[in-house]
Amino acid sequence: MKKNMNISIKSKEDIDKMKKAGKLAADVLEMITPFVKPGISTGELDSICFKYITEEQKAIPGNVGYNGFEKTICSSLNNVICHGIPDNQKIIKNGDILNIDVTVIKDGWYGDTSKMFLVGKCQPHNERLVKITQECLYKAIEIIKPGIQLGDIGNAIQKHAEKNYYSVVEEYCGHGIGSVYHEEPQILHYGTPRTGIELKEGMCFTVEPMINQGSKHTKVLSDGWTVETKDGRNSAQWEHTLAVTSSGVEVLTKRSEESL
Ligand code: MF3
Ligand code: CO
Ligand code: CO
Questions:
Q1: What averages of pLDDT result for each successive group of 10 residues across the chain (260 residues)?
Q2: Which of 220, 124, 209 is nearest to 166 (CA)?
Q3: Other Cβ atoms closer than 10 A to 47
């Protein structure tokens, strides 16, 4: 691994190891999908993921112990933007929208990914929020290649969100990732084209837009983790871990349902 300024450039061998971690993280989201049904608690979903990562994958759940977080997944329901804490008392119900965000460490390398779940039958406005937020992530992925700049990524996301009358959360962002969970650079989900750091082959980072139905403003609950929308309206998020290649980008946390 070479370092240029503070942004590490990963070698082919490094990225091969990140692919393994990324695949395991993606597999956790695929494994948990059939369990995400009305009546299960977010605490139970967390226990299933913990067991799967430690016992089946023989890997490490990257969130456990991170800055004092105690759980394997973040489970963010409806008006929760991110960092929801799994809880055996919190039962998901028909019509909820849920984000599950998981990080797996394998052989010292990290994979970080999240997806939205529509629980049972959801209202069209919630289905639309979830779909447009995924499109925001995909629009960013589509343009990533060496030579583009971080502002181009943020702008692609912001333009698509705002065109659909949504707002982009500004306080939380994507991040460089590798043998460290969160490293430089920060990947803002809003921005101005042709500004910011230029992408180079071997950079690895997440893109994880948080998109709100109402205003962009956030608040953190007294548990010190849970981030909610200030106005109480719903929020969605999708996340992938990416590696910049010579001609484009590789999605290290791709699930089999995705054609990326
Ligand atoms: N996975 C989150 C991210 O995308 C970070 C979660 S930190 C935790 O960067 F401690 F809340 F798990
Ligand atoms: Co992340
Ligand atoms: Co994450």
A1: 80 98 99 98 99 99 98 99 99 98 99 99 98 99 98 99 99 98 98 98 99 98 98 99 98 98
A2: 209
A3: 15
Ligand nearest the Cα atom of residue 85: 1
Q: Please give all residues whose beta carbon lies within 6 A of any atom in ligand 1, as ranges.
A: 63, 66-67, 69, 74, 83, 101, 103, 112, 206, 208, 225, 239
pLDDT for position 129: 99
Q: How far apart are CA 38 and CA 30, in angstroms?
A: 18
Which tokens belong to 193? 């084209």
- Which residue has its alpha carbon closest to ligand 1 atom 12? 63
| SS3 state at 45 | helix
Gap from CA of 63 to ligand 1 centroid (Å):
6
Question: All domains of the chain, ordered by start, with CATH?
Answer: 12-251 (3.90.230.10)
Cα–Cα distance measured from residue 96 to residue 126, given in angstroms and rounded to the nearest whole number? 9
249 within 8 A of 141, measured Cβ to Cβ: yes
